[in-house]
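yo, NTE family protein rssA is done. seq:
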Amino acid sequence: MLSLRSRNPQLVDAEAAGAMTDEPQAPPTTLVRKADTEAKRQRRGQPTIGLALGAGAARGWSHIGVLRELAANDIKPDVIAGTSIGAVVAGCYAAGKLDQIEAFARTLTKRRVFTLMDLSFSGASLITGERLRSALEKELEGLEIEDLAIPFAAVATQVGTGHEVWLQHGSVSLAIRASYALPGVFEPVRIGDRWLFDGALVNPVPVTVCRALGAEYVIAVNVTADTMYRARVIRDDPGALHRAAEAGPFGQKADASFVDRFLPRYFDRQPGDAPNVATAMIDAFNIIQDRILRSRLAGDPPDATITARLEEVGMFDFHKAEQLIHVGREATKRALPNIFAHIPLSAPPDP
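structure:
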């Protein structure tokens, strides 16, 4: 893996790394952490466990339930990677802040979710993300990825080139922000000489990242595995075009509010409603993410998959944290027999 520390200490370009054959010496802190991980693995008699937390917007709160249930069964990841909302939960877990992110998620209501959507007038996005940034930095202020208890990486996408970027150094909160910066909704994040946005465009469930971090057994958590965006070919209705012409032009009502015109509509969205700007962008993004996810998991399948089926939960239902955490725990319980078939019950916890 090529570390681009000479250009910027926070970036690892996955595409560039894959093309290189001469690997530089790893930084001393990385060597110490890898040695510590290996020692823990030998004491437990287990393979090095990696946990890949996938993208999925509000559904990502189910990752909290996954981590809780794994811990209850004495399964603790040695390395962790996340994309988008998965990076939020993974970064907080690696920083020892899982309790704090769970408490934050459980306090969210429909009203509070909207208050966190501070409008942007920069022309780069609909939302600045400053209020979310403040909430993150309140808990993660001063924390560097190199200082976390376990190896952690967040996946982002470089604007313009589409390069997959693995953030493994520097500010935890900045790496998380870059990973969840949904194009057109949140402002992209500048790190060094690159502008970055949501990593779900290139690697929705970062199994490959966990393997690169040294994981021998990777557990992937997929929170978008349902029928919402499943591809289907639908034959056209011969009379549909005529009915569409009679229905009039596409668009919102003339007296629609600013919220109805531009902000995502998921709380009260009806099947026949015309999508506004944000809803159309997010739906398009989710469809693309679904297709990329299937391709990536087929090319590099995980050793175990925890699948949280959440068909009744929308991508912006952040106020349903209690339900989502419960779903995450139940999905993990279903996957445990397969996981334990390959990972022996661990020895007593380290002192």
